[in-house]
Each structure stands twice: as structure tokens, then as C-alpha cells.
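Reproducibility note. Readers wishing to regenerate the assembly model reported in the main text can use the exact inputs given here. Chain order matters: entities are listed in the order in which they were concatenated for prediction.
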Amino acid sequence: MSVRVVLVDDHPVVRAGLSALISGTDDLEVVGEAHDLATARSVVAATRPDVVLMDLDLGEGPGGAAVTAELRALDEPPRVLVLTTYATEADILRALDAGASGYLLKDAPAPELFAGIRATARGETVLAPSVAATLVRRAASPGPVVTEREVAVLELLAQGLGNREMAKELFVSEATVKSHLSHIYTKLGVDTRAGAVAAAIERRIIRR
Amino acid sequence: MSVRVVLVDDHPVVRAGLSALISGTDDLEVVGEAHDLATARSVVAATRPDVVLMDLDLGEGPGGAAVTAELRALDEPPRVLVLTTYATEADILRALDAGASGYLLKDAPAPELFAGIRATARGETVLAPSVAATLVRRAASPGPVVTEREVAVLELLAQGLGNREMAKELFVSEATVKSHLSHIYTKLGVDTRAGAVAAAIERRIIRR
DNA sequence: CCCGGCATCATCCGATCGGCTATCCGACGG
DNA sequence: CCGTCGGATAGCCGATCGGATGATGCCGGG
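Running the prediction on these inputs yields the following C-alpha cells for the assembly.
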């Protein structure tokens, strides 16, 4: 009774690698692969896997978090184990919020990956050490944490948008954007837009 | 007489994937793997491969470009084919400057990858279409490169300094700072300070 | 020898930003 | 039921920015 796994990753090389690694075990089995949302939907529906290994960066189209959310909305949803390269606070929160059961990094050694898949199949939550650290830091610090909305502002800010443009993009008024910015400055300990972008990238709140 | 290949990538998954893919051919052969500079050095010395498949982002420590440069400095250097995820202009230039014979992206289909390895072994130069396009675009335009002074401004800018403060720091007038900023905006294709910081970090003009 | 790129500086002015104060609302928890 | 928090909104005002325009001096390549 092996654990049935579906791979979702836009890189053929990575899918082949995971396939090769997993085929070397006797209790894990790859039953399907997908490179985008549409394919993932149909493959999961057809194969009903125990665990979906999900990359967050799928190139064009919806990202892994969106795919995760959609898969988790199914009747008997598969457990989703995120396996990706980056781990900004925003990435992690978005993925877990979408219903992922775990979050591992691609530089994990194979045995750890296997253990993670098995644990996920059993319903446990697995987190890479650095991801756990990020979550702990976030939980432990009584300190200021940027809110979801503020992250959105930061992402637009990094694209060089002005307040008016951000407001339009976020469907709020310019006053609201300024309010968010003020909070961001306080929380990041800066007092300019440029400084906020640098600090946000530094702390991996956003990525480039 | 098969082509002997060494893999350099910090992700076990990717190495396994490439290994699996390459073992499916009858004229290519993986003779070694490495995940960092030190390992790459000894593995290449021991196996003397025809081609090294090089990832640029090796996590901690020296990047793939540095490893490439070091390998190319050997007596009978192997040809190096870069195989990576991202392809910013800076990445490409650094890699080619370090002596890489080609630059492919990880989302390339397997047959293309195999063809690239064979071509590299023959001494040809292989470039992914998007990489070629980037180089062409650059060659076509007498490309703007940020000057030393402009980099200095960018670094201060990323610290959130205002024009007056930058001027004081650089021992120039505020007008000069503004002049530099204007040039920076033009060269980076942005029109705000925040955008300039993001673009500069993205292109690795400044480091965080 | 002249041109172009780089660095420097100046002035002007409209647009934008940043800081401040204040209000309102829904959600969550004590 | 009340306090707190995230989020949205408003107005005000001085400081700053961004763009336009123009000028000077130096240096290196054609």
C-alpha cells in the first residue's frame, strides 16, 4: 500500500528528478505529473493521489498557491506538500493559507523529502527548518508584522507605482494607501519608499 | 565514445533528475556530481569531463559563475554549459564572461537539453532563445551601463536616504544627486526611487 | 582636434510624498 | 459588552521629488 503522489512543477527536469528519486523507494509512487493549473486539476481528478508535491512558481499563469487552493476545494482533497525554492514570509503564509499541509525547500536531501511525503500522507504537518524558524519568529515576536494588505502595497511599491496607481490597483482610495505606507514605515523602521523596498526585500517579505 | 558530463547544482532533486534523464541516452554519461565549488573542483579534477552542467544559484557560498571561472582556469578546462532558472542580463553576462560555452534554461525540454550538451561537447555555443534575444537586444543598443557614481547613489538610495543626505554623503551638491538619479531612471527604465531600488537589486547592480 | 560620455552644478515648478489627526466599521476575544 | 486590531477614508501642509533645461570641465577615442 504505497503512497500515491502527483507532481506539480513547471520544470521537466525537476519532475523527472522527483520521479527518479521516488521510484527508488518501495513505499512511494508517482501516479501523475502536471505543469499548470488545468493539467493539475484533471490529473488529480483522474488519479486521486494521497499527496500532491507542489511547486509555487509555475511560470506563466496561476501560481502554486492558487492551484493548492483549488485542489483543496475538491470533495476529497489530496494533501498538498509545497516543495519550492524560495521561502519568503509571504510565500509561506499564502501557501499554508491555501491549505498546504507542509512546506519543504528544494535543497532538501532526498531522505528528508521522502520522510516529508510519508508524514504528509499520514496527515502530519512538515516544515523545513528555515520555514519553521520564520513562522516561529513571526509568532514569537510581539513585534510588528506586516499585514496582508501591507504586503500587497509593498509589492506594488517595488514596481515603482505611485500612491494613485497603487490605489487604483488595490481598489481603495489614495488615503488608504498612504495609511498602509505609514504603517509599513513604522514596522520596517524606515521612512521612505525606497528604504521600505530595500528592507522588504532584505527581510524576504517580498521577492524580486 | 560518449560525452562525459559532470553536474553542478545544489539541489539533489535536480541532480537526480538530470542524471535520470541523461542515463536514458546512449551517448551521454554522468561521471560526477557536485553541489558547491570545493566539490566541483575535486570532482572535475578526478573525472576530467567533457562538459560541466552548471547551475548559477548554488545557495550559500560562491555562485555558479565563480565556479565556472575557476574550472575554466584549469589546464585542460572542461566546457561549461550553464543550466539555470533565471536569465537576467547580469546573470548571462557574468556567466559568459566567466567562460561558459552556453546558457540554457531549466524549463527546456529534455531533447533540447541533450542537443545542447552534445553541441557544447563539440565546441559549439548554445543559447536558449530568450537568452539569445537578451544578448541581441543588448548588442543592438549601445547599452547603458550604470556608472560607478550612479551605483554609489543607488546604494544610498536603497538605504532610504533623501537627496540632501545623499549629497552630503557623496560630497556633491543636491543638484548632482538629482542629475545622477535622472540618469539612473533612464537607464533602468523606471521613474521612481522605489522602482530604481527594486530594479537595481533585480539586476544585481547592488546587493542587499 | 573634436566629439561624446561622465561628473558637476544651477534654477524653476508642478506633482507627490510623509506626517498628523480623526472617524468609521467589522471581527475576534476577554 | 467592550477593547483591540486591521482596514478604509478624509483633509491639511510643509518637505521633497521628478522633469525640463542649460552650463562647465575633464578625459579618452576616432
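We highlight two features of this model. Residues 162-164, 178, 181-182, 185, 191-193 of chain A lie near DNA strand C (CB under 10 Å from a C1'). Strands of chain A lie at 3-8, 28-34, 51-54, 79-84, 102-105, 126-127.
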